Amino acid sequence: MFLRNAWYVAAWASELTGGQLLARTICGDPVVFWCDQSGKVGAVEDRCCHRLFPLSKGTVQGDFIKCGYHGFEYDCTGKCVLIPSQREIPKNARVRHYAVVERHSVVFIWMGDAATADMAKIPELPTSDPQFGWKGARYYVRGNYELIIENLLDLTHLTFVHASTIGNYALIDSPVVKTERWEREVQVSRWMMNSDPPPTYVKAGNFTGKVDRWQIIRWAEPSVVRLWTGAAPHGQNARGKIAPHGAPEGGKLGGIGFFNLNLITPETEKTTHYFWAQGQDMQPKNQAMTDMVFGQIEMAFTQDWEVFELQQMRMDQAPGRARVDVGGDAGGIQAINILRRSIEAEKTLRVAA
Ligand code: FES
Ligand SMILES: [Fe+2]
């Protein structure tokens, strides 16, 4: 079950090029995307109403999408506007359409009824923040999306999964950790004062001594996780001066700041489209620096994807197997609880309607 009345990331805006169709299953629904002649993105069910052929196997015809089987054409509201073999178009000749919005370099899709799409709920993303140079990618993960959310909210795994890049024992050696919860968001802040910088930080920040290091992780329903991380030389009172989301002011203290953006879109119950971006504030206009940071952090994150697939494999072998929780799981547990409660509430509303 997924939360339907919510915005998910369907694609990076750069993935949609004029004249091309993009097929993507989201929350179990096959969807096809295209741009009309003005550049506006359309999204409809990837299943022709005639004989259920995938519309993504057809073509873009001006503003419309044309089925590759018998040539029916649809507009971006899902209405059939042309049947080549007859003049009359049956009233029910239509496919479901979805509300889509292009913003912050991504294409968002509302998986509930398009008429109820709530524009106020589109999340703000740091990809529009000029303080950062950033680079993004999309990965396909063979694991449930909740595994990714809980992974990001419990960074004690860095010490073990990412020892060669961003992990070290500072993460579990008495850091100051705070978990905060709002109606639809959870934030975990972790401060590692007077600690050794991990290998990637030494490379990017040229640190020669101890640092004060921060990780501020914020989940927003359904599945956006923003990470603000960084470090400054120890003793500069980074903790007192850094803004709520950490990195921007940290960078000014002779330290380094990063954002890491995770846009986690379920494909099915067992597979996920993982949109991922890495930003740096050291030299925002320096693409080589952005590429270097992206490469370093990506190396670390690929280690996680293997973990998710292996977890999913063991879960499939023992469906419903109970798990043991510890303190570090607090943020993840709260996020998943909020999410599941919203899904239940939506289900209750549907039954009542
Ligand atoms: S199946 Fe699409 S036009 Fe016939
Ligand atoms: Fe990780």
Could you explain how this protein is built, in words?
This protein has 353 residues and is an alpha+beta fold. The protein has two domains: 7-121, 3-layer Sandwich (Rieske Iron-sulfur Protein), CATH 2.102.10.10; 130-342, Naphthalene 1,2-dioxygenase Alpha Subunit, Chain A, domain 1 (Alpha-Beta Complex). The protein is 23% helix and 31% strand. It contains seven helices and 17 strands. The chain has helices spanning 145-153, 158-161, 199-205, 238-241, 247-250, 287-317, 330-352; strands at 7-12, 22-26, 29-35, 41-45, 59-61, 64-66, 73-74, 80-82, 99-103, 106-110, 133-141, 176-181, 185-195, 211-220, 224-233, 256-266, 272-280. α1 (145-153) runs antiparallel to α7 (330-352). Residues 151, 157-158, 161-162, 304 line the site of fe (ii) ion (FE2). Residues 151, 157-158, 161-162, 304 line the site of fe (ii) ion.
Order of SSEs, N→C?
Answer: EEEEEEEEEEEHHEEHEEHHEEHH
CATH architecture of the largest domain: Alpha-Beta Complex
How many strands in all? 17
Task: Please give the count of helices.
Answer: 7
How large is the share of residues in beta strands?
25-35%
Tally of structural domains: 2
Largest sheet: 7 strands, antiparallel
Placed side by side, the strands forming the largest sheet appear as 11-17-16-15-14-13-12
CATH superfamily of the largest domain: Naphthalene 1,2-dioxygenase Alpha Subunit, Chain A, domain 1
Give the overall pLDDT as a whole number: 89
Radius of gyration: 22 Å
CATH C-level category of the largest domain: Alpha Beta
Which structural class best describes the helix and strand composition?
A: alpha+beta
